[in-house]
Structure formats: C-alpha cells, structure tokens
What does this fold into?
Amino acid sequence: MEIDLSQARQTFITEARELLQDIENSLLRLEKNPRDDDTVNTLFRAVHTIKGSSGIVGMDIVEGFTHFVENLLMKVRDGDIPVTNSIIELLLESRDHIVELVDLAVADARALPRDVSGRQAVLLERFDAYLDQQAKAAAAASSAVEAGDATGAVGQAVSTDAWHISLRFGADLLRSGMDPISFLNYLSKLGAVVSMLTIYDSMPPASGMDPESCYLGVEIGFKTDFDKKAIEDVFEFIRDDCRIHILPPHSRIGSYVELIKALPEDAALLGELLVKGGALTQAELDEALKLQTASGVSALHDEGKPLIGEILVNKGMVAHEVVDAALEKQKETLKHKSKEALTIRIDAARLDALVNMVGELVIANANINQHVERLQDPSLMESAAIMMRLVEEVRETTMRTRMVPIGETFSRFNRVVRDISRDFNKEIDLVITGADTELDKTVVEKIADPLMHLVRNAADHGIERPGDRTAAGKPAKGRIRLHAYHDAGSIVIEIADDGKGLNKDRILDKAVSLGLAVPGQTLTDGDIYGLIFEPGFSTASEVTKLSGRGVGMDVVRRNIDALRGSVALDSVEGRGTTVRIRLPLTLAIIDGFMVEVSESSYVIPLDMVVECVEMPGAERIAARERGYINLRGEALPYIRLRTFFGESAKGDLYESIVIVKYGETKVGLVVDFLQGEVQTVIKSLGAVYRNLHGISGATIMGNGTVALILDIPTLVETVVKYAHESGQASTRAERTG
It folds into this structure.
C-alpha cells in the first residue's frame, strides 16, 4: 500500500522555509557573538529538524546534504570545531543551498541539475576538510586519554557493568512484517536483560492511532559476554528504520550526556530523563524519591532547585554532569511545549475564507439593521443592537488573526546588508526599530520585494566606502535604519541611511535628458525626488550586480500603489536619504465614515477623519474662488467631491466639510450630507476601473447599493497640488497687476 505524503510534504515545506530563515538569523547572530552557545544549539536543532523531517516525507536530496551540515554543527556544538568567519560563511552558503534543494524537491526533482550538483560537491569538499581535521585532533586526544592524561569528569567512566541499549522502533516496522518482540527475545539469548523501560511518548490518543504503525521504544540494561558487533547484528534488519544507541559497560559520563541530549521524547521530569538515558535505573530512582519524601519534600522541584538531582549526586547514583545535561534537556522541552501551547498553524486559504465570510456577515447585518430601523420594534431593535456588537467583535477578532508583526520581514535584510558590505568593502550596520508593529499578512507579503530593493539601493548607492566616509567627517561604519510605526490608521515604514544623499541638480539634468522635465521648469524638492520613480530613470555612474540599470524604483512605486499606499523620498546631500512608505493596515474590512454627494454615497476610512464642520455661509463664495477656508485661524485647503467626480448639483444646499489627515497634511472634502460611521467590507474594482483616480475600492451597503471608497492619499495629493498651483497663479496675477 502506497502512502500519500502530499499533505505531509506541504507541511514540511512550510516549516522548512521558516526554519531556514531562523538558521540565517542565527548564523548572523553567531557571527557577531561566536561564543553564544544558545545560538549554536538553536542552529543544530533547526538543521536536525529539517534533516529528520525531509527523510520522513521522502525528500532524499534535502536529507542527504543536511546530514553533513548537522555533522559539522554537532562538532561546533561540542566545541571540537571553533566558530570562525570561514565556518559562518560555509554554513550560510549551505543554508542557501538547502533552500535551493527544497525548491527542487517541491518541483519533484529526482536528480540535481549539473550546476546545483557542482556547488554541492564543492560544499561537501569543504565539509570534509573541517571534519577530517577534527577527526585527526580527536584521535590525538583519544591517545592522550589512553595514556592516562584525561582529567575531566566527563571523561570518567560510570560504575555500571551493563550495556545500555536505547532503541526507538520505526513507524513502518509492523507494515514491513517485523515484530518488535522477536528482536527483544533474540537479544535475551545473548545475555541477560537486567532492566527494560518501555517508551510510549509518541503514541497518539486511541482515536488517532493507526493500528499498522509502531509507536514504541525501549531503554534496556543488558549484560552479556558478546561484543558490540554481536548486539548490533540483532537489529541488522531494522537498523535503517530505527534509532539505536548502544553504550558499553563503564562508558564515559560524556557518552550518557550525549545520549540524554539525543533523546527524541519530550520528557518533563528529571528522573524520567535519567532513566530513559540509561544513567539511572528505575529502582535507583524509586530509592531516591523515598529519600526525598523522607526529607519532607513531596515535589521534584522547590523554588527552581533540582532536589532530586542533588540526592542522586550525593548518593553517588549518577554523576552531576549527567544531571546537568538532563536538566538542560528538560528546560528545552518545557520551553518548546509552552511555545507550542501558545501557537497554532492555520492554512492561509482557510483564514482568507473566514475573512470573506465575516465580510458577508457584516453586509448581511447592515441589511438587517436597515429593516429594524424601518420597523421600529423595540424588542427587535435591542436584539439587533446585540447582534451588531457581536458581529463587530467577531470582525475585530478575525482581523487580528490576519495581523502579523513586520519584524520577520525586516530580519531578512540582515543577510542582504551583510553580503553587500562584504562584496563592496563597506561597513554597514542595519538598525531595526518598530519590529513589533503589526499589519495585514497580505500587505506584509506584498511589501517584501519593494523593501528589498530599497534596502539594496541604500547599501549600494547610499552608503559610502569607509575611506570616503572618514574623509567627509563621518564614522567609517554607515547605518541603515528600518523603522515602522502606526499613524492615522496607516502603517509607515521608513528606510533611512546616513550616506551621501541625492544630488538634485544631477537628478534634474538626467530627467531633462530623458524628456521627463523641461529645461528651466520650476520644481519642488519633492517633485525632483519623485522623478527617481519614473521608469528607466537611474543616475548610477556604473552598473553593478545589484543596481544601475534604471529598473526597479518604478516597480517599487507600482507595487506600493497596488496596495493603496504611497511612497515619498526626502534627502539631504552629504547626510543621507529617507524613503517613507505609507500603507493601509488591512486590505479586507475597515471602519468607514459615509458621506453623500448628489445621489452617490462615498466611504472615507474612519481613521483618517479628524473632524466635520459646516461650510461657513459667509465664506462660501470667497472659498470657492480661493480653494481654502479659514479654520480657526489656519488656512485649510479643500476640494469639492461633487466637482471632482462630476456629480450633478442639487441646488443651494448647506455643505459640510470632512477634514481628513494623511501624514502631516490636513485637507477638507466638501460633501452634501454626513451619513455617519459604517463597517466597510472592501471589494476590489474590476480591471476596467482599477486605475480610477481618487477611488481605491468599493463596498456593498445593506440595501444592496454600492458605495465607493475614497483614495485619500490621491485626494490629498490633488488638493495640495491644486492649492500650490492656485497660489502660483495668484502670485503671477498680483505681479501682472
């Protein structure tokens, strides 16, 4: 019977990519702090997980190479190979190679392409060089121990004269026709089984149990006159499918320490770990527990102190190094379990479907409220109010499940900045702030590529080489800062560098040569910097492998526009450049403020609404001519939505102004009626209307009509531009007069 592993493969791919990103982050941390043992352990566990999981789902090309990486990391973890820059470089290249292998496995490749195979062969040669060097050192150390030079406690032998066999049967053992009991019976013919502990930690609940799968393992104490080869031969037929560790009598304490670290189960109690690891028998543990109870302590732990461990060490039942290793394993297990209990993995498609259903629920609830308002039944109105509150809570909870911190995206750029620094002989620090800022997962996924391009530009074009920086009176090491924060219902992402900045004259000259500007044309700084985002524009003096071809910045702006966001650039020559991206928090459901213009309804994102005021009657005629009103002593530019969208007039109505804020700019939107707050489900417009100026989407109202959602960034830009042009026209008129 062939087993369908497609679902397991998909789960592995998702987890492997997350682990590979963790590996990259850990290696970059280790490069800065080579003595960080916790990071080394994290690295080893991640690689070990990928290796084991890839073997389970049949991705042999991933498992085979990852095995070599695991071997090297094991030597690094044990202190046999020191952490050096060359080791970090090798592991980073190996991580990239595993990424490529995973992609090939996804494509169901059975063999490696020639170029991939060549890179792998080079990496394996470099692994062999390190491992051979370490093996020679280990042989020399072994000779010294045999000569009586070993003095460390871990090198001492334990007193037990029994073999210890740690065995975990493979899940497919029964399917292949093997009987675990038969191997144990055969083992007993070679000697005496003095202790046996059955391990069933991996056994699922009865409802999820597969009767054809084997979930058991054993820890055996075994006395025999046969050698290790004879014991291994007992398990010859199942060796490839099982995990077997055999320790001879009087093994070094260090061997038991390694065995405890290698235990696959998540054991939570110290005594259980020691018994499973073979360092302690169940009888010895029971005796120690009796001593503990006699001392008046009923718990295994008291204020974090391992009392059972102290008793075992004091009574000489087990070495303290073994207890320490078991405690470390126990801490890792408890930490892993607590983390697992707090998180759950949800398929993105299911989450999107849930959000869509909640959106339909919001629309249906709005329809019910309209009928309730018409009927004016008190009991029905109370029930509808409760229903509305619950729908709103469901909506907010559902939207929070889509919100993810942007820090994970930011952390990917550490490697980018590191590699550019090395390739171009620069010194660059990447500073990340606001990593906990959350936004919609869809926005996070789509903003990654534009951010990558901007960070590369800052590192390649912005930051100077150390010599140039010191000559300009700057620190030799440059800095790129990624910063995220919430502002007025949006998320703002800043990419700032302290490099050489932008030369406005050079940009303008290039724009004129490309026909993007007219000689002698008066442009603001913002207009000049905005030219950089035009297709084909580049001021780079040389083409590098990263930039200089005039491709990229226009794509950055196009991708950000597609997210209903905006991008602005500010620079001071010689001091640095800041790119500021403003994005909506979510692309699904928002709180809105509905207004009416003529016969049409429009929705303004509520987070951008500052206040609503009535258009002053005395200023109506004057305001129409000059394009702004006097708002408590300040000039407020505005735009009439009726005029902007070409709506028909409805007579001399009293008009209201909705004051909105985008970034640091306030403008007024003149409307006919204010209808109040609404919950808005954002529906994308069709391809025909996708580039409609001033509109970012649509929503369906409770009565079935469609209301358009205003694109506030575009409207603010239009108002500011109109006010600027009006001011220039007034100035010209005054000069002419």
